[in-house]
Design brief:
With 266 residues, this protein is an alpha/beta fold. The chain has a single domain (11-263), classed as 3-Layer(aba) Sandwich (Rossmann fold). Helices cover 49% and strands 15% of the residues. It has nine helices and nine strands. The protein has helices at 20-31, 43-55, 70-81, 108-136, 157-176, 196-200, 215-228, 237-248, 251-263, and strands at residues 11-15, 35-40, 60-64, 90-93, 139-144, 182-187, 191-193, 212-214, 232-233. It starts with 10 loop residues before the first strand and ends with a helix. The relative contact order is 0.13.
């Protein structure tokens, strides 16, 4: 991890920090000696989390921004590029959402918003943060992708496509920056019990208990792997097996298995 500058603690900016995996990652970063910039749409929840983290010794800035909008992205980009304030040592791109249903039936504005948040915002924030980190020869970016990154997702086609972008972009940037002192990591969780399911309309009872992890389990594995400098982190033994199996299975078979699993979530 990046070393603290004299008289300061390293600073981590976490998007989607108001709940779920983002909140859990923010808490992990704080416990690891980082101050925070907390980003999400919900200012009250961010204020509450900042107060809790302050009780543990971490300062936390609150930056309320809707990353589906140009203005929201611009606000966070400006913070990442700022030379007046403390520079961001670690960027955690966690904000995102999923849509469930046949592609032809989902509203076009929902699909476009999904791409705006999961793809465009993540890409623009990564682009804003990376040059400064490379100049300082320290820092890191943790992009939250998904187990869905590895396979097409009939019934969640748009979501799977956005997360495939995240994984591919992250792996490519990692190779471009080898030896730079900057760590680039993709976190690919499987089914995780968060508010994500409610927004996506997922029926959580459709899959058995062993398929699910908690946000805290995912964050623990993700932060530990990021600290080690891992390239891709897939939390959970069952998810690791799935990711490997998908890579070596015929694509038609992968599509059918994926479609069968996703149908259980409708």
């Amino acid at each position: 991890m990046p070393s603290a500058r004299p008289g300061t603690r390293p600073l981590a900016l976490v998007t989607g920090a108001s709940g779920g995996i983002g909140e859990a990652l923010a808490r992990r970063a704080a416990a690891d000696g980082h101050d925070l910039v907390l980003v999400a749409r919900s200012r009250p929840r961010l204020d509450q989390l900042a107060a809790e983290l302050a009780g543990g010794g971490s300062d936390a800035e609150v930056l309320a921004a809707d990353l589906q909008t140009d203005d929201g992205v611009a606000d966070v980009v400006a913070r990442l590029r700022s030379t007046d304030d403390r520079p961001v040592d670690v960027l955690v791109n966690n904000a995102g959402f999923g849509s469930v249903g046949d592609f032809a039936e989902l509203p076009a504005d929902i699909l476009a918003g999904e791409v705006a948040l999961n793809v465009m915002a993540l890409m623009l924030l990564t682009r804003a943060a990376l040059p400064g980190m490379l100049d300082r020869r320290q820092g890191g970016i943790l992009n939250v992708a998904s187990l869905a990154s590895f396979l097409p997702g009939p019934g969640m086609a748009n979501y799977s496509a956005t997360k495939a972008f995240v994984l591919s972009l992250t792996e490519a940037i990692r190779e471009e920056t080898v030896g730079s002192g900057v760590r680039i990591t993709a976190l690919c969780p499987g089914f995780t019990r968060t508010g994500f399911q409610g927004r996506a309309g997922v029926r959580t009872g459709g899959l058995t208990g062993p398929a699910w992890q908690s946000a805290e389990q995912v964050a623990a594995a993700g932060w530990a792997g990021f600290r080690r400098g891992d390239d891709v982190i897939v939390p959970g033994a069952l998810n690791k097996i799935s990711a490997v199996t998908v890579r070596f299975s015929p694509r038609p078979l992968v599509r059918k298995i994926s479609a069968a699993a996703i149908r259980r979530l409708h």
